[in-house]
Amino acid sequence: MSRELNRRTFLARSAAVAAGTAAATALPVTAASAAPAFTQGGKRPVEVPDVAVRPEARKDPTEATLAEAVTLMRHRALTAAALVEAHLDRIARFDGTYRAFNATTADAARAAAKAADRRRTGPLAGIPLCVKDNYFTAGVPTTANSFIFEGFVPKYDATAVARLKAAGGIVVGKGQMGPLATTRATSPNGTVTTVNAWTPQDPSVDPGGSSTGPATAVAGRMASSSIGTQTGGSIVNPSNQQNLTGLKPTMGRTSIYGVIPLSYTRDHSGPLARDALDAAVMLAVLAGPDPNDPRTLGLPAVPDLVTAALPVRKKGKVVLRRATTIGVPPDYLTGGQATVRRAFLDTLASVPGAKLVDVTYPADWGLLTGTFNNIRLSERTEPFLPYLQRDPKLFGVSLLSWLQGLFLSGDEWLTGQRAKHHLLREVLDGVLSKCDVLLQTGPVPFDILGLPELGLPIGFAAAGANPAVPVGTILGAGPYEEDRLLEVAAAYQAVTDWHTRRPADPAPPAAAARSAVVPLRLTPEEAAATSA
User: Fold this and answer.
1) Could you tell me if 325 and 357 are in contact, meaning their C-beta atoms sit under 8 angstroms apart?
2) 314 is catalytic
3) pLDDT tens figures, 74-87
4) I need a labelling partner for 387 at 20 to 30 A (CA). Which of 158, 283, 298, 341 fits?
């Protein structure tokens, strides 16, 4: 489909979503309908291709990518029961340190693995997955890590969860998250819980955003892949911080039905995975229309995401599947990660088909992506007004960011909406008119607009006393062009090995206890300042 048609469709859908916000933000009240599971957009079957399996993955299945695990199971070199048990063993041994899960489903996972070994059904058959705790899960608590939903047990699965299960995926637990998806993962009172899997004894190292439980679960080899949500960076940021590949699709490409809302016009669901191919497989299963989520209806067909994530070689050399112009913004090589980013640009420029160009931001870029971003607060506050009126303490450490939404006037909200439409023109008619893919130093501009983003690892750098913490980058593209992002990521990952590196196991509990630092606790002001 042409970029112009994609653009027209996206603009029409964005306007419709904005108009229907008030009616659509309510929590779901009916079960998700039967969801397509084995096709990309209801057409092409989702098939995981055989891949070369690394020696590390043959020795330890928790080292394997999703595609490697499927390849091993397909050729009877691994059983689903063994794969799931290996991940459950790591949860039992290490999650006391990582604190990536706030609920585990070991018995159900073991039963599902045995069933998968008897009869493989679906592209994800036997794959252990972590689900962020704001997705409805039938019979399993869904709390959004908040006092408001404490003790809530849904009777049905969110559409995304239903699709993963229908494709054979096995949920091993619910991922810890920021309270109501606003900050890094903490307890509702602000005490930091989940740590970065690369620095388990230093909780001060940022593990990403509110999807840090799902990210740490995958990085710590306690799940093969996971799903999170993104409103202000919480898929790509945890991926960047923990050496993963995270893909936030275009608004509406995946359903958010059965997800406890934060901001209806900005909430996205998507995968946090180990590489581009795994992310593509996960998104291919998740994507497609859902009658319960009007944002998903009437969109362009889902492209062949799995093929897009397979590297192309000509005469033994990796090349881009399509010639791609990659925009480099003026601030890309600033800050402490400039050396790693420069090396990334050099590597990317050496891939045939990649063309790097400098792009400039409009003069009002900072205003459009900064000050006017506050209009999101009133949208998140409106559906939760009854809880604010009943007992503000239910919001715990994140209360200030919810109260801020009460103080935005109607004219400020309307001005912010006009600013959003102006930003959309600046992006579609400005920076993206000069390139196919845009490198970014932060996720917010494309989050505001609902455009797709992909985060991928590009190296390591020192952080405080830690000599090697993952560094990632973010790629953004035009509406419904997730395949273009995957093509670039697949080519880069075919010529580098950053994405194959795993963190060392944390210290045994006794040693960890002797060296533990005082637990960090976010203040309400810190929570508001870092809120999604």
Assistant:
1) yes
2) no
3) 999 999 999 999 99
4) 158
- In sequence order, what are the beta bridge partners of 225? 129
Of these residues, 14, 146, 187, 210, which one is catalytic? 210
Question: Is residue 521 a contact partner of residue 192, using CB atoms and an 8 Å limit?
Answer: yes
Separation of alpha carbons 407 and 392, rounded Å: 15
Q: List, for residues 359-416, the tens digit of each pLDDT value.
A: 999 989 989 998 888 888 888 888 899 999 999 999 998 898 889 888 888 888 888 8
Does residue 296 surpass a pLDDT of 60?
Answer: yes
Concatenated DSSP letters of 290-328: BTTBGGGTTPPPP--HHHHTS-EEETTEEE-SS-EEEEE
CA dihedral sign of residues 195, 196, 202, 205: negative
Instruction: Give the burial class of 462: count Cβ atoms within 10 A of its Cβ; 0-12 exposed, 13-18 middle, 19 or more buried.
Output: exposed
Of the residues 14, 132, 225, 269, which is catalytic? 132
Q: Is position 204 annotated as part of the catalytic site?
A: no
Q: Of 14, 224, 234, 378, which is the active-site residue?
A: 234
Does residue 352 register a pLDDT over 90? yes
144: exposed, middle or buried (C-beta count within 10 Å: 0-12, 13-18, 19+)? buried
